[in-house]
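Section 3.1 - Work completed
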Amino acid sequence: MFAPPFQLCLFAAASLVLCAARAEDVSKPSATAPAASWQASAAEHAHLLSQVRWTPVAGTMPERNGGFFEKGKEYTGVPYSSVKADGRYIGFDINLRTFLAAVENPLSVLYTQSLAGKTANAASFYGTVCSSFTSYALQCAIPEVSRRHGPGVSKGVERVQPQTAQAAQVGDVIYTPHTTERDGSHVELVTAVTKDAQGRVTSVRVEESRPMTTKTTDRSPEAFEAHLKHRNKLLFRVTDLDAWRGGNRAESLQFPNYKLDATRPEINRTLLLDLGDWVPYQKGKPVKINVMDRDGLGVKALVIRRDGKVVEEVPVSGPGVVERTFKDCGDYTAHVLRPDGSASSACEFAVCDLELQLPEGSVSLAKEWRVQFKGENIPIAAVYLFNEEDSYGRHPIVLSEEERRAGSVSIPAGLLKKPGKVQVWLIGEHRLGRLKVRRDVQVGEK
């Protein structure tokens, strides 16, 4: 949790059914047992986002503290930004390679767009927050709200006893509770526990997403316990990963893709997209191709293909931006022809269309209602409900194959608990990334 102005870091999704299971104490810590396989994997996944190194090529990339990332300075860990439906979450909406490609393009959305003032708790167009960081590590298909790590909300999570460094295990979550419902809560992940020859814990490593980038901290037992006491933090343990995730499992969708995120990409030095590379665009949105020719090999033409067929060859004589808005959905590539007849490597992107239809007028808390949708060149993965009047009212609905074919999903009566404006996000998933479109609906008592 961050004191104002950071406020909420919980704008990721909660599960479809918020289980009111009481968090129980873990009877005894396992002082010497190695981390179980999924806990070890959680630490490895966290490292992918927390240890990546990148260097801005322009000085206009906004950061959450209100300033800008410094041009030419190397940073470790992905940037903090609660992008919601307005940007894209690293690891969930885009692969890590797409972010790294955007970093190398001085005219990418990282440097030309800011979500500050438009989206609460956000700055850069690509980013992560505390709950999306831990959700990525814990193999969720869609980010879980930070409050799901606390008591009285979820199955499969228990309070560790005693609340000490000696009881800590890899995969444990540190939860900072909110003061009021509208205040932010915060989550951190234990990713390493070091012990001496006698099996006593000597150090606990904690990783978290916070401004400016992810943070990794090694603490002595005394410092770790002081950290827990500050702001009434609690150490929780996910004892049953499948119960905690419910239907929100990464195995059911294409993202997160840990294997791909673990592979350092070769970034195109001749041209890059305004969204980086390896990325989908919503139909009707312009695609801005920055021909950079960073190696000075010369350029003669920009070749654009759709589904393997040339759709345009644009004469170019030097570096510059070529902007196109494509009316046809499909999988595209763009590459440069050089004066010597050689070709550059290609950027990959997709043009997709998402359509979301909600009931006219308002809907009722007490009655079932339906969301209708369709996608072109992108399968529909989920519908996400975001109740602006209820900080617990975050519901991702991962769609069944039957619902995808039908093009609609039923929102059951009683799922939403409070009246008010509800954001409905439609999430499509292409192999290159996810797209989101948002519509709002007013929910009443009757």
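Second construct:
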Amino acid sequence: MKDKKGISRRHFLGSASVLGTGMLLKPRFTWAVNRGADTKPALLGGEKTFSGSFPRWPIIDATEENALRGVLESRQGWGRRMRNNEADKFETRYAELLGVKHCLTVNSGTSALFTMLGALNIGPGDEVILPVYTFIATYNVVAMHHALPIIVDIDPESFQVDPSKMEAAITPNTKALLPVHIGGSPFDVDAVLAIGEKHDLPVIEDACQAPLASWKGQKVGNFGLGAAFSFQESKNLTCGQGGGITTNDDRFMNACVGFHHQGSVQEESPFAQGAARGGNFRMTAFQASILNAQMTRLEQQAKTRSENAAYLGELFSQIPGIAPAKLYPGTTNSAYHLYMFRFDSNHFAGMSKARFIEALRAEGVSCHPGYGEMDKSPLVASLAKNRHYLQVYGEKAMNEWLERIQCPVNEKVSRDVAVWFTQTTLLGTRTDLEQIAEAIRKIQKYAKEIRDATV
């Protein structure tokens, strides 16, 4: 695991919520945009509140066009054997931006996670612990190695993995911890690293949603043995499909390079344990050239998201029953791939979350109900009947596994509480954000009528 001496310990003044949500900031206004709250909600036949539009994603211009043409005309690096100039360039730039020693490009965030578990020689009989509230790829990469995904519950205020649940799930078969910086906000880094160190387990950061997020002044991707990033089309840094691995460990990087290139480890790695295996998970020069073009906007876009998240937090602080997801005190920055907030139906006449989302969408505001109950999904349940798993673990152990992975906190959060805006919402204008808050206040005022309406 990474030596934690390298982690910045500078004092973080104030609550991270000031940066991330603005919940502690004194409001600068007395709701000057309240003009629409007295009008009938759109779901009940009124006019919709939101009149703006958010930037079409991804944002591109001639920079991307010229980058692609350059690769096309060079006739080099189309398939990227081991290296190509565009990938080399991006890996160097991204590593420098994060302050990490190594970066390796791969063809997706899923491949980044899969490669790192492969470099650790994770396989049948092993267990890997991960949070329930995450994209299914975090689960799939464990199952793809025929190891047992141990799904654990979350903190209901942050939606991040609950470190105490992670530690309680450790057994002699546990081989890695796989926490997720969900929504682009850091999980409780200090707590998870302490658990990994205590039990001598590698921590692999799923940072797929978290480019430029930071903890105590240091960017995520530096804390575990390795970290995965995704450059899929919806991500804050995108090339359509792509991924990256970061690490400060030379030997682990060597094992990852080998696994992503047909098992061709260049020198003996203690992580591979003599196992020569791998596949083709390489990134092409076309993908890398797009990333290099997108990098020119990354930091300014991140700044805009952070500023708008703080402003939206101010607006939400005036609406009872709406609260941004908690950021931990060590959080210096969230990447805000998602703006996640908590909906409390008690302040909306008992209206269901689903009805609230329906009403908000009717006002013209795009929003999402978030992740569901992975522990109860048919995909996860099917693993208990998979013949390969039955051969390795047996029917009794697989049935016990289904009981182990129940997550009641997530059940409440996913059904009744969590609501999202995507990152493009935070690239809008202040007027856009004010209209979002105005729409919610209108829904709150007419909550009983909306709850009881048959439309």
